[in-house]
Each structure stands twice: as structure tokens, then as C-alpha cells.
Here is the input.
Amino acid sequence: MAGSLRKSSKRRAMSDINVVPYIDVMLVLLVIFMVTAPMVNPGVVNLPTVGGAKVQSLPPVFLTIDANENVIVRKDGDPVQTLNKFELGAFARSQAEKSAEQPVVLAAEKSIKYEVVMEVMSKLKENGVKRVGLAVKSQ
Here is the structure.
């Protein structure tokens, strides 16, 4: 009996990880994905055409938020007036009274916080402006 104890004490536990089964599983998954990938049909989206779009009867009013968080009103590309946050409500009400369907396009400098843009949009909406859009610069 003493001899059998000595034999078991000389055996050490194997500390290596056998990665062969993991490689086999990975290769099987790779083959499965390579076979099924061409069969997956990405969804095709039918986009609407713009040929039937109505031409806007009223030109939009452009509002630009500058670095000082003032709102500059532009009509036909020329600055008409500069408003602060408190004067914006009265301007929006007057715009809504003239024509509720006239679109207002809002632009802001990159440095302006998103919160300021959302405040201006909500102020326009709550004072009767129905159509508010955002202007972006194409790359």
C-alpha cells in the first residue's frame, strides 16, 4: 500500500488548458456562418420618390442660434432681427398669427449645447409654430 501512495503523489495535476476543442468549435461556427451569410437577404426598402411632392408656397423663416445663445431671424438670407430667449415667444406667436403653416428652419453653431436647441424648438412649438425643422451642413 505504501508503494501505491508514492505513485499517486508523484503525479502532478495538469496545468495546461486543452484548446483543441475550442478551435474545433470555432472552425465549425466559421464554416456555418460562411455558408449561411450569402443566403441572408438584406431587407430592401422601397423609398418614396419626390416627384409628387408639393412645392412650398411659403418660404421658410431661418432662425440661427449664435455662440452667445441669441437667435438671429433671417428672411431671404438676410438677418432681420436678433432675439434673446425672452423675446422668442412673442416672435413665435406673431409668426403663428401670420401663417401657422409657414415652416421655421432652425440652425445652430456646433458649440451650442443640444439643450439650448431643444429649448428654442419647444418655445416655438408651444407658441403656435407647427412646422419646425433643423438645418444641417452636408459634407
